[in-house]
Amino acid sequence: MRAAEGLKKFADEAHVRAAFMHTLQNDDNPGIRIQAIDALMARNAKDAELAKTVQEVAKKDDNPYIRSKGLQFVSTSK
Asked: Looking at the predicted structure, is the pLDDT value of residue 23 above 90?
C-alpha cells in the first residue's frame, strides 16, 4: 500500500502507469486495486485511450467502487 501511495505522483509516466494497470488487473487485494485506479485517474484524467482500458478492466471487477470509478474515468476523459 505504501509503495502504491509513493508512486501515485508518477502515475502519468508510462512505466508507472503500466504497473498500476497490471495491479488493477491482477491484484487480489481490493484496497490495492482501489489505490491503482485512483492513482490512474488523478494523473491521467484526460487520457481517453487509458480510460477505455480502465473501463474494460473495471467492468470485470467484483468491487463496486472500482466499477464506479471505471465509468467515472471514461466520463472525465472526454
From this structure: yes
pLDDT score of 45: 76
Residues of the domain holding 37: 2-76
What pLDDT is stored for residue 70 in this prediction?
86
Angstrom CA distances, 78 to 23, 25, 56, stand at: 24, 23, 16
Question: What does the DSSP assignment read for the chain?
Answer: -HHHHHHGGGTTSHHHHHHHHHHHHH-S-HHHHHHHHHHHHHH-TT-HHHHHHHHHHHHH-S-HHHHHHHHHHHHH--
> Grid coordinates representing 40?
490512474
Q: Are 5 and 35 in contact (CB under 8 A)?
A: yes
Cell of 37: 485506479
Greatest CA separation for the chain: 31
